[in-house]
Design goal:
This protein has 448 residues and is α/β, with parallel strands linked by helices. It folds into 2 domains: 113 residues, Roll (Urease, subunit C, domain 1); 305 residues, Alpha-Beta Barrel (TIM Barrel). It is built from 14 helices and 19 strands. Strand 4 and strand 5 form a beta hairpin. Helix 4 packs parallel to helix 5 and helix 11 crosses helix 12. It is globular. The protein binds the ligand Nc1nc2[nH]c(O)nc2c(=O)[nH]1. Ligand LDV2AJBS binds next to helix 1. Keywords: Hydrolase. Belongs to the metallo-dependent hydrolases superfamily. ATZ/TRZ family. This is 8-oxoguanine deaminase. It holds the Pfam family Amidohydro_1. GO terms for molecular function: 8-oxoguanine deaminase activity.
């Protein structure tokens, strides 16, 4: 029996159904699950468990990242892609990504996941939609297993190249029959539907301007057959809306609905440009949204109507998006940015720090179909972030809301399924200097 006792927390922000906040309490983890929350708890056997003193820590659920392109950690701040809108940005980067292979996918995923873990993220999804030079989805799955993060990789795809009216170069697209065959392979090999699962696979044709209607429809049918989730980019900016109207004769919401892309098992990234009817459609159908505020700022896409979505009952989670369009991967910073953007567009009371933290934790977990994560309650998975508030970031703060209003944005400790992934501010499961050295070598090779 593996146990960890988190003792005497300054505050436990549970995000449970009553949103309780507890002072001076303990939290006992047993075999990857939260066994007890209360006063004066003890390990079952003092010699077999670990004790973490949390007197100077705010304890929250591990944060959830609902949208990423991990491979893009190898293309941060690329000249020529620093100041472009989405389509021009993609066209600058596609030829660089076309030179990636299995090692680039693996190392960039290690770096991206480590960065997320340090910012308190215990569960991340990933959208890998290009497979050049023998790259495969399992390159990223191995990286997640090694670091120990809970992982929802999605088998993305692009099938409509430039010559057929799409945006990506023909060299980066795959045949649709091959895509569907590989989707079946990765679901059968890696998807674990059980509670507490560390790996759930989703299907994720890239975006309306890079795949056909047929592939969107076939992927939806396949996902329902296999019982896995669906994910794509939708309504990201004005170019995206114009493409939809010009090529499909309708707005993205109608396109998604006609092809089976609404429902509890679907989540769409960005959704910056959803109109009232589309927000209503998403709320009625329980379709989820991955809100990516920093990327939306970086690419000049706009401010997603998160206040209106939440008021209408749409499920919203947060995404850091790929590190070519962020260019960071700090999920706590993303939560702060989401709060600030709603305030700048709707007023100072448009989103509280607590609501932003809720979106970053249980909100994201609900979008990914994980009610067993994103909240601290007995029986839930032991995905737990401890934030040290004795440092400069939060010196002088009066309330746990300071985590979003002031800081820190990096954790002291992070547990995933009861295992320590971050310990005293360092990744405990990887040799990070070695990983970063290899990442730097790969960047130099790509630049050459
Ligand atoms: N922010 C992003 N949007 C996208 N659309 C698309 O087709 N690819 C991307 C991407 O990588 N990032």
């Amino acid at each position: 029996m593996a146990e960890i006792l988190i003792r005497n927390a300054h505050t436990i922000v549970t995000m449970d159904d009553s949103r309780r906040e507890l002072s001076g309490m303990d939290l006992l983890v047993r075999d990857g699950v939260i066994a007890s929350i209360g006063e004066n708890l003890a390990l079952t056997r003092a010699d077999t468990g670990d004790i973490i003193d949390a007197a100077s820590c705010v304890v929250t659920p591990g944060l959830v990242n609902t949208h990423h392109h991990l491979y893009q950690t190898l293309t941060r701040a690329v000249p020529g892609a620093q100041d472009a809108l989405l389509f021009g940005w993609l066209q600058r980067l596609y030829p660089i990504w076309a030179r990636f292979g299995p090692e680039e996918m693996f190392i960039s995923a290690q770096v991206g996941l480590a960065e997320l873990a340090l910012s308190g993220c215990s569960l991340s999804s990933d959208h890998l939609y290009l497979y050049p030079n023998g790259a495969r989805l399992e390159d990223t799955i191995s990286a997640a297993r090694e670091i120990g993060l809970r992982f929802h990789p999605t088998r993305g795809a692009m099938s409509i190249g430039e010559s057929a009216g799409g945006l990506p170069p023909d060299s980066l697209v795959e045949r649709e029959a091959d895509i569907l065959t590989d989707m079946i392979r990765v679901v059968d090999a890696f998807h674990d539907p059980d509670p507490g699962s560390m790996c759930r696979v989703g299907l994720a044709p890239c975006s309306p301007f890079s795949v056909s209607r047929d592939l969107m429809r076939d992927a939806a049918l396949l996902a329902r057959d296999k019982g896995v989730m669906l994910h794509t980019h939708l309504a990201e900016n004005d170019e995206d809306i114009a493409y939809s109207e010009a090529n499909f004769g309708c707005r993205p919401g109608q396109y998604a609905e006609e092809l089976g892309w609404t429902g509890e098992d679907v989540w769409h990234a960005h959704c910056v440009k959803l109109d009232e009817a589309e927000i209503d459609l998403f709320a009625r159908t329980r379709t989820g949204v991955a809100h990516c505020p920093c990327s939306n700022c970086r690419l000049g896409s706009g401010i997603a109507p998160v206040r209106r979505m939440r008021d209408a009952g749409v499920k919203v989670g947060l995404g850091v998006d790929g590190s070519a369009s962020n260019d960071s991967g700090n999920i706590m910073a993303e939560a702060r940015q989401s709060m600030l953007l709603q305030r700048v567009s709707q007023g100072a009371d448009a989103m509280s720090a607590r609501e932003a933290l809720e979106i970053a934790t249980r909100g994201g977990a609900d979008v990914l179909g994980r009610p067993d994560c994103g909240r601290l309650a007995v029986g839930k998975r032991a995905d737990i972030a401890l934030w040290d508030i004795s440092g400069i970031d939060s010196a002088g703060s009066w309330d746990p809301a300071a985590l979003l209003l002031a800081g820190p944005t990096r954790v002291k400790h992070l547990l995933v399924e009861g295992r320590q992934v971050v310990q005293d501010g360092q990744i405990a499961t990887l040799d990070m200097p070695k990983v970063i050295e290899r990442q730097t070598q790969l960047v130099h090779r790509l630049m050459a």
